[in-house]
Amino acid sequence: MNLSRTTNPKIISVANQKGGVGKTTTTINLGAALARAGRRVLLIDLDPQGNASTGLGIESENRELTTYDLLTGEVLPSEAALKTTVDDLLIIPATTDLSSADINLMANEKRSYMLHDALHQPDIDSLDLDYILIDCPPSLNILTVNAMIASDSVVVPLQSEFFALEGLSQLMLTIREIRQSANSKLRIEGVVLTMYDKRNNLCQQVEADARDNLGELVFATVIPRNVRLSEAPSFAMPVIDYDPTSKGSHAYIALAKELISREQIPQTRRAS
Ligand SMILES: Nc1ncnc2c1ncn2[C@@H]1O[C@H](COP(=O)(O)OP(=O)(O)O)[C@@H](O)[C@H]1O
Ligand SMILES: [Mg+2]
Q1: Mean pLDDT of 141-169
Q2: Distance (Å, whole) CA 99 – CA 168
Q3: What is the pTM of this model?
């Protein structure tokens, strides 16, 4: 264990209420690339579909302690965190329990803070983490609200297609509301363009619009459409292990580097 680490892990939600935009792909592969860059990372699967868990090879029968147990306070993070095939990449898996009505039935004032409270307890120190990445469900429901209240920042995957920017204003509004009510330190880490095809005019247009409207909030790194990224989960591997030389692998390694280097930028310049 690295006893010299004194700061808290940085907690990042990977969120967009649209499904199929690359949230889970980004959580797994950014997490793996950060781990490969020498950081210690915990992924939290906050989607009842459990795609991040499956994609990292955690079979349903091995999901005894899950994000649901973490949220309800039944288990400690260190008890629920499982190793993955990648060194220094851990995951707390999800099952469909997470969509259970229990969460919605919890007392109103507490239910938005369940994940915050779980991740801000002394037990977290024992995991010796640099980053916690939360794979959000495709909605702005109570689970996503929990993620944002627990987080320092949000990474927003934006699929390079028509209408991509339309859903973004709703998401930005939610982030602003949470900043004004429950979590004043929440900021937008960055918007990452996913499934980008540079030969496609529409992709270029979406990129130009995003950079015009959002400026430096958009990561310089763009994730290309790459079949290796879609194949890797069925081999229970992140792309950096499934096909290290693929474009998808290079892209997520570059994104991890950019994320790490952005830590040096003063926050005031990045306020949205
Ligand atoms: N850059 C990419 N290139 C090719 N396929 C991708 C890429 N990113 C995601 N996919 C595929 O698109 C689908 C949706 O991605 P996923 O990460 O599951 O989105 P979300 O978590 O937002 O629903 C998946 O089948 C995934 O494998
Ligand atoms: Mg997903």
Answers
A1: 92
A2: 24
A3: 0.94
